[in-house]
Amino acid sequence: MSANFAELDCQQTPLGLLTLRRRRVAALEGQEVFEVKLGDAFLMSSMFHKVEVALADLGLAAAAGSGWDVVVGGLGLGYTARAALRHAAVRSLLVVEALEPVIDWHEQGLVPLGPELTADGRCRFVLGDFFALAAATGPGFDPGVPGRKFHAVLLDIDHSPRHLLHARHGAFYGPAGLCALAGRLHPAGVFALWSDDPPDAPFLATLREVFATAESHVVSFFNPLLERDSASTVYVARTA
Q: What is the model's pTM?
């Protein structure tokens, strides 16, 4: 296989064929880039992670006090988890990931941030379906402490509240699903969500039905392959 391209892992999952690959990008002066594909669709790339970092920073900027217990929904390449751990006020971090190979990549050091995340004693990976755990009938995010509450939940799984990886996730983004999530937060707890779509007024209105406050932030980043700016949205909501 070319030194400029390597397929590091490829496994069948309940959501489809999951592939981790590494390649060098000529447009970035040969920079090494890690990419994750689900079937033919790109899920994530180390080339673009500004919004994943902003998800943690914007979300935790809205949190109060210190000694935060935080959940990240979706491990991916680990950028949101690492950004959260850089906040000294974070006491513990649970990263909920439905795809076991993604956790394996980090524990085996196949992805760049794996050694850093696994070495931080505050960070623990939980293999599970975030949406099932968050549901009103679910046990919650910590398998060892049913019903445990958290100071912040940072979610980066679906492409947006309307562009889902699986149709069964849809109920989460309605009033009942968001109410169940809010019930897993402490008072003044924060829910932050990444979306690849522009701000969605109806979804923002639903957030404001459930939470005391909610707002959207547009995060722009330069796309060197397209040679233009791209943008994503981060929603930040807070309980009373």
A: 0.94
